[in-house]
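Crash report, auto-generated. Payload:
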Amino acid sequence: MAREKAVKSKKIPITLKEMKKQSFLMIVSFFMVVYGIIFYYWPLTGWIMAFQNYKPKKGLLGSKFVGLDKFKFLFEDDTFIKVIRNTFAMGVINLVSTTIMAVLFAIILNEVRRNWIKKPIQTISYLPHFLSWIVVTGILHVSLSPTGIVNDVLMRMGVIKQAINFFAHPKYFWWIVAFANCWKETGFNAIIYFAAITGIDPSLYEAASIDGADRLQKIKYITLPGIKPTFLILLLMNVGNVLNAGFEVQYLLGNGLVQSVSQTIDIYVLKWGISQNDYSLGTAAGLFKSVVSIMLIFIANGVAKRYSEERLF
Amino acid sequence: MNEKEYKVSKPVSDKIFGIIVVVFLASFVVITLYPVINTIALSFNDGIDAVRGGIYLWPRRFSMKNYKTVFAMQNIWTGAKVTVARTVLATLTSLFANALLAFVVSRKRFLFKSQLSLFWVITMYVNGGMIPIFLLYKNLGLTGTFNVYWVPGMISAFNMLVMRTYMEGIPESLEESAQLDGAGYFTIFKDIISPLCKPVYATVALFIAVWQWNSWFDAMLYNRMKTQYTTLQYELMKLLSSVMQQSGSAENAKNAGANTITPITIRAAVTVATMLPIVCLYPFLQRYFVTGLTIGGVKE
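Recovered output after restart:
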């Protein structure tokens, strides 16, 4: 009897009675799957356009197939090579800098014992996350303008003699984007690390204190190893997004003078696909991005599997 | 002897560390808050006076004229109305749809539980990309309508997973006892699971609402020609971008002519008006998104 029950709870036989009981779940699932197919899976058929000379009038079935011509065009285009470089570089710089900032912020804030200091700082730290990129880039533009606060401070400190127009020089652009990302997301990203630190057994710290460890040693030998699993999981999840992290900021901050370092794959797709109506070329560039992203996820997952316990799937 | 060394060395290194902590956090707070306060100060300053620069934390020549100008702009009002409408509608529909899906997927007895889960998880990693999606919306007749703001994004796998994780933590016995009392699955969803899920519902609702409030790209891409469906952020973007595109080079700015550039104080006033609702609301909602992220995010 007991054994039967155990088996039953593990695997539910597909009986008519069970199906009837679950009819509500089935009906909901059906509509959800239909919705998913329309809005998430159907666009995948559009990838065919990348191998065609797509004409909206002729449609997917009527347009002429051109093989890999569109990809050939892309990789012979110097702009596209630069675009790939920019997307990768900014994606990696952003991932590294925002991760370091979030970990640093979480660890340092955790060292504050008094709640009336800690709580307000934490609340302030979330603020930029809730502002739109339009607002953030607008604010940044005012701060970094030749008459803005950054030039003001640098000149008063004697670091520079003349105001710098930060948005006119390509060499600053990637770092401005990295700063913008750190400014916006540090506090919010730190939430998860903060939770991980809170989850560390306090007796470890007590034991370390008795052994005479100072605060820096406790961070190095207890806090950092304690947040390592969280760090790795988040890194894994974000590696696949490296190429996706390049649109809004670059689009809003970029201008003609820094175009060679500011354009990313998504901006390229927008420019060719939507503005120039070359749907096939835009799709090809987008498809390239998707394929590389999926490869990155699998590589990251494979590396993680080999060297540590963490993995996504 | 050793003990003596500790007693001397411990406070010194900890004191230096303490100073680093204070300096780091102080600069963090200043860097985070200063640009925001500066924008607010600018928005209350006289427009011509602000050109001289040198306004930091407080307006030099106080004026309400910027706000009067902004509130007289018809497009700002249209954008505000559309933004409020889409935020409210999308938050309600999307919360309901995601919660229902999460409920179905988290039922342990459900026959297609794992298949349905996988179906949605895949959408997180693979998507058609900008052009195929643009064409789909065009074919479905969504472009150029208000519906493009809330219909396509109604279900998101990420929000669904956050809720699923939370629902899986609710004891199964609650569901079983309700079933013995003759309750169907919809009753269980409505009367048993949902009341217990209020914290995670609040988290996801906040995510959706902020996302909706801050959206501008969909307005630009799908409704560029339909001024009646413009959003607040898109109007702000149009105001700001005329300046941004030109500030890169002095010649450009000269060629374009000064009359196309909106005064900095007006831009500041629009910025403040767009961010004000969120800045006022989020401190009260923070306990929800902190718990929601911690539960859903770490375990996911």
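Post-recovery validation: Chain B touches chain A through 92 residues (CB under 8 Å).
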